[in-house]
Amino acid sequence: MNSQRKNQILKTAACITALAIFASTFSTAIKLFGDYTGDYAQQALRDTASSVGWPTTPYEVQEFNGVGIAAREVYGVSPTGTSEAESKAIVAIGTSPNSFIDMLFENGIPKTTFHGHNAAVIKGGDKICNAGGIVGFWLKFVRWIVVEIGNAMGKQVNPDDICFNASGIVAWECEDRLFITNAPEKSDNSMIVAETLYSNAKKQKLCEDAGSKADWNTIKDKLSKDQPLTTCELLYYIEKVEGANPGRNWEDIVARIHYQAYPGDNDISIAGYPLYAKNDYTKFININIFDKEVNNSNSRMKVPRFITLKNGDKVDVGHTYAGVRAGIGRGWTNSAAGTTLSTDAGDIYQIFFDEKGVVSGVKQILTLDPVGGAKTIWHSPDYWPADQRRGNSLAWTLRGYFRDHPDAKLSDGFREYFLLNGEDTCGGTPKPLSGPQPTTPPISDGTPRL
What we know:
The protein is of the alpha+beta class.
């Protein structure tokens, strides 16, 4: 065999050996990467289990509540240390984007966001009345059975009244990782466990906040130029005020911000009825709202007066502060009267009487076309700007929120509303709250409630 032939054979052998080593190294790297991520996932689960008092040894998971999870690795922890427990926390690695969240949504679990990530969340005891998938199949079956039994007993049953009670579920995605917490209906701590798991996953670099960030200098610049804030920036501002004033509740905070926006409204009375029961400004004037940091000659704009929603709609949150503040310290019935006077009814008064006088206002009302005139009032920006109506609508929703959650923070109410309506919350979620949850209809600019 000549030397040239030998050299070719040696080169070929060396090339094959190099390829084999590369392939082995590459496959080992993939395996190590998978194991490495799995180790972080298991550590996050161990830390979570330790925090909530569960056994700290993760187990491998094959399915979640009878549904398989398509992933490379799946681990879980639970109060019993086994997958049969009703409560559990799960981390799956190597999942397909949206697949599991979409499956939960199809089965009646509402979609939302969790720290800015695609999520599906439902509280224990919430009703599932519209669902597809497996849950929808069984819901139809149960409804059929109950209706047949009712017919046999001579009783008419509306199948739409038959719903399933949900167990608590919080599920969210971070890249190719899926996180799930689950708890039974009557002892739902799924959100508490989810927040704990999220915090530990963040420490292990498995999941980071996905929401947009707010910049304080940008916020001050916008306020100095009379520009609306984003929903994220409004939350940042309110939380900054809350952080600078420990021990002050939502009532004090909203009263101080509103007083800055409308100082002349503080002592207004209508037929002897004070518009604001909490009107002793000496009790809240020392709250730091950072107004001295905003270079603006218009004192009203040294606090956020307007925000812009994702769809471009502007909201006059000055009206929101007014409506929320007017309900403080009055009880439920009088609270409704206060909120009405400071928002919807107050706007109507301004439309007809404020600048025209009583006689002129009455004449204008009497000469309005019953249909066209009403439409003009409710929907014409010439009479009633849409941003004010949206601010009023938001005030009514927050009023209900703080009725049910008097110990919450002002930022919690705004964040809960923005979160459930798909607005930007800087990746944040409301703290777990006990008691009934408020309904959160979209901010309306339609006919006000009087």
